[in-house]
Amino acid sequence: MAYKIAVFDAKPYDRVTFDRVNEKYGFELTYHKEHLDINNVVLANGADAVCIFVNAVVDSDVVAKLKSYGINLIALRCAGFNNVDILAAEKHGVKVVRVPDYSPHAIAEHTLALMLCLNRKVHRAFLRTRDGNFSLVGFEGFDMYGKTVGVIGTGKIGKVAIGLFKGLGMNVLAYDLYPDNAFAEAEGIKYVTLDELYANSDIITLHCPLTKETEYLICDESINKMKDGVMIVNTGRGKLIHTRHLIDGLLSRKIGYAGLDVYEEEGAYFYEDHSDAVMTDDVLARLLSFNNVIVTSHQAFFTQEAMENIANTTMNSISDFFAGKELKNQVVYKA
Question: Is 298 among the catalytic positions?
Answer without folding.
Answer: yes
